[in-house]
């Protein structure tokens, strides 16, 4: 019974929002396709998710894969920069005082602002997209890693001192394991942002992917596909977050 | 015997100006076991932190084996009250990390064997792969003791090592520690901080009271010349216990706190004699001078 409830409640929620969507499409938003119409027009893309018919005309699974691949690259680049930066900020007060204002200013800048800059610097859309994803997604990792280093109890530092561990040993045996759970919280949040940014960067660069497809279909007036993209982006983002959350909770269990 | 640990006129103040320790003078012989007994909050942990070079003294000098202390010395070990194990490593890995750092030239195999050997010595043969979170408080402290002895230390600092344990576990581990000290076969110079006079008598060669802070300082020492290893039962057959009572009574200083602590030492020694005495009436008679402590109180 409890299990049934657990399954039922989210379903009710989904139906509720779907109902609102339907009502909106039937009343004031005449251009908004209703749920059945959306399904009808999206069937091909969902039922054959990995079929390639043209540059942009591809199954939704394939499009999502392109986007995921791009996000993965941008996200990895981001955390490769962010993790050492976070450690440095956590360990050095001087460096923190130097960089904190810069970080606080850079952090709230929208991907829509970074992308043109990336295009100017790299002159190509792909590196510009990666640049944008990396720059936007790195901050939670920076901040969380820094907080993690600062939160290491004196006790562990004492162990390193007492055992006379070398700097490298202290780093690998004490600092990294102690910071790992915080780091992964940062990674999870960063991945969320990276996925958020993908749509914007693909829209503006017109590269094949879920965001590029969305923008193209908007321009081709096929509004049902916009909704298909939105749902897909949401589902993929949710799955990503859950996966990272599982890794994170395993690390916290230690 | 040459003194192995030498603290000369040391003091420690915190940045807020509070002077925790003042005029600390202490000399510990090679292989000697000295206990500092004091109230909680009197700066005992600060004393051991300073003596072991975990943080610098504000003034004065600390020498270990003739060398001024800068940072935690080589071939020294410390056991903290809060175990201080790394939770992401197993018991074996915790001990092995210490061995690796102390003997970098050894082969991996030898490091592992050394760690295993010392864990076996503290009775943790079946807990090699357990994480600290899977172990009880007493077992964690056993790991910490194994870690301390595994580096074959010449100096051992014990910062209220059994303070976090329940009474039964505490008594067990005290015996365990006494056994480890004598079993190591090397001379280990030990400085223990404790708030338990009984514990101090059981383990040390000399007991020194620390007055209540701020500006805490050491009182006159009370030697404990009773053969080791000791246990409540063994102390029963030893007349020295009574001798120490008289001695500590004579040593009572002008400091009220010192008087108080020494009175407690006397009391607890008497307590030993009495608890033993109930089994052996003849020692009970000798263990009588309980009142010494009260007589000297101002």
Description:
The complex is a heterodimer of chains A (254) and B (298). In chain A, helix 8 (167-205) runs parallel beside helix 9. Chain A has one domain (62-252): MetI-like (MetI-like fold, Orthogonal Bundle), CATH 1.10.3720. Chain A has helices at residues 2-26, 35-47, 60-91, 93-106, 111-122, 125-150, 154-162, 167-205, 210-219, 223-252. The longest helix of chain A is centred in the C-terminal third of the chain and has 39 residues, at 167-205. Chain A has 254 residues and is mostly helical. By secondary structure, chain B is of the alpha/beta class. Chain B has a domain at 219-298. A six-stranded mixed sheet of chain B has the order 6-7-8-3-9-10, sandwiched between helices. In chain B, strands 2-1-4-5 form a four-stranded antiparallel sheet, with helices on one face. In chain B, strand 1 (3-13) and strand 2 form a beta hairpin. In chain B, helix 2 runs parallel beside helix 4 and helix 3 crosses helix 4. Classes of the chains: A mainly alpha (254), B alpha/beta (298). Chains A and B meet through helix 7 and helix 8 of A and helix 2 of B.
